[in-house]
Design a protein that fits this description.
Helices cover about 40% and strands about 15% of the residues. The chain is α/β, with parallel strands linked by helices. The protein has a single domain (about 1-260), classed as TIM Barrel, CATH 3.20.20.20. The strands form 3 sheets. Strands 1-4-5-6-7-8 form a 6-stranded parallel β-sheet, covered by helices on one side. The protein has a two-stranded antiparallel sheet with strand order 2-3. Helix 9 (about 225-235) packs parallel to helix 10. The protein is globular and about 40 Å long.
Length: about 260
């Protein structure tokens, strides 16, 4: 899964696709084409930054960003388009334009979100986050981070299935960096196979995150090698989808790993 953040303040590539004149469609399409050519099967479009400390944007602004990007990309780049949103309205209108998946950092907790996804019949990823982006990194605490994330998933699964979403359409994301310390993040990765036991596909996003800087002092744009290493570890422990900025490098590393594992 390749990351396409249509936001001015993404922690990694903030403002790459947005300028004073609006959406830079040429840059966006070149980036999406490069990701798809390198091996990304899914492209994840987000119109609201959820980095630590981020403030929410209006629903109309999110709609303008996401729908504008999706409309252009669908006509030029062949991929499955995932929409990174918590808004039922954005979900509905994106699906009408051909989106094939919903990726919600709030795990469908907003009013009408479960009913909307049930009606759409699209695959959905439920992510664990403690708090909200504006406050989630203010001293997060857990007794056992893995068991508490597991309990969260079990409760959200119950609500989603009771609300009409087919279990086979649900993916889970432990939410690395979302309301978790560096230690929590590495404990989650170390025991990721425990969450895979839930029997649903795991989607993992570790690319360029600050947990890397908690071990090695690297600026965001220097974290590619560490990000690739973390993606490999996640797949080894049961991740089925890795959400990354550096698609080509991750695909190459996974190709080498899978070749060895299959022999």
């Amino acid at each position: 899964m390749g990351i396409l953040n249509i936001t001015p303040d993404s922690f990694s590539v903030g403002g790459q696709f947005l300028h004073s004149g609006g959406l830079d469609t040429d840059t966006l399409c070149r980036r999406a084409e490069a990701m798809a050519f390198a091996g990304a099967r899914i492209l994840d479009i987000g119109g609201e930054s959820t980095r630590p400390g981020a403030e929410p944007v209006s629903e109309q602004e999110e709609l303008d960003r996401v729908l504008g990007a999706l409309a252009v990309l669908r006509s030029r780049v062949d991929a499955i388009y995932s929409i990174d949103t918590s808004s039922p309205t954005v979900m509905q209108q994106s699906a009408a334009l051909g989106a094939g998946m919903i990726n919600d950092v709030r795990a469908l907790s907003r009013p009408e979100a479960i009913a909307t996804v049930a009606d759409l019949g699209l695959p959905v990823c439920l992510m664990h986050m403690r708090g909200d982006p504006a406050t989630m990194q203010q001293a997060p605490t857990y007794t056992d981070v893995v068991e508490e994330v597991r309990a969260f998933f079990q409760e959200r699964l119950r609500l989603c299935i009771d609300g009409g979403i087919e279990k086979g359409n649900i993916l889970l994301d432990p939410g690395f960096g979302f309301g978790k310390s560096v230690g929590h993040n590495f404990e989650l990765l170390r025991r990721l196979s425990d969450l895979a036991e839930e029997g649903l596909p795991l989607l993992v996003g570790l690319s360029r995150k600050s947990m890397i800087a908690g071990v090695i002092d690297r600026a965001v744009d220097k974290r590619m090698p560490a990000s690739v290493a973390l993606a490999l570890m996640a797949v080894y422990r049961g991740a089925r989808i890795v959400r990354v900025h550096d698609v080509a490098e991750t695909v190459d590393a996974l190709a080498m790993w899978s070749t060895v594992e299959q022999r």
